[in-house]
Amino acid sequence: MTKQLPNLLIVEDSDEDYEATTRALRKAKAQCEVSRTVHGDDALNYLYKLGKYTELETVTRPSIILLDLNLPGTDGRDVLEQIKNDAKLRTIPVVVLTTSSNPKDIETCYQNGANSYIVKPVNFIEFMQIIESFSRYWLKSVIFLEDLER
To answer: Using one digit for the tens of pLDDT, what is the confidence trace for 76-98?
Structure first.
């Protein structure tokens, strides 16, 4: 079994939050390939290789998804539910990274199969620490299903 570089799909509509996340990943020396989609419909098109992703050779199945909940159009709650109800996608770990600390959101996400739920800290240093912890666990320690298939 060979551990390959994980493919991280970040579903985030905020350019500032996306930039902060990728900066934190670089600072944590995260070893991964990063792709981004900016809204729920875009994420689903990416996962199903539809629309602009139909012909792209670079679209690879994510090892893990970092999902914001509050997205334009199809929101993250619906994206999570669709991923976890699809036999071909449900094995992809989904970590929710959102500003919502609403207990209803947390409960709904876990009931719909989220693998983890993280509330984005407002403080940038705390945010960096959260992403470093995410990287250490999910990108360095975890063995993904695709690692078994290689």
So the answer is: 999 999 999 999 999 999 999 99
* Model pLDDT, residue 110: 98
Answer whether residue 1 is part of any domain. no
Distance CA 11, CA 96 (A): 10
| DSSP labels, 108-143 | HHHHTT-SEEEEPPSSHHHHHHHHHHHIIIIIIIPP
The CATH number for 80's domain is: 3.40.50.2300
Q: How far apart are the first and last CA of the chain?
A: 7
- Low-confidence residues of the chain: pLDDT under 50: none
Asked whether the CA dihedral 107, 21, 6, 51 is positive or negative, the reply is positive
The phi-psi region of residue 131 (left if phi > 0; otherwise alpha if psi is between -120 and 50; otherwise beta) is: alpha
Residue 2 in any domain: the answer is no
Identify whether 49 is part of a domain.
Answer: yes
Judge whether 150 lies within some domain: no
The number of folded domains in the chain is 1
The structure's pTM equals: 0.93
3 state SS of 36: strand
| pLDDT value of position 3 | 64
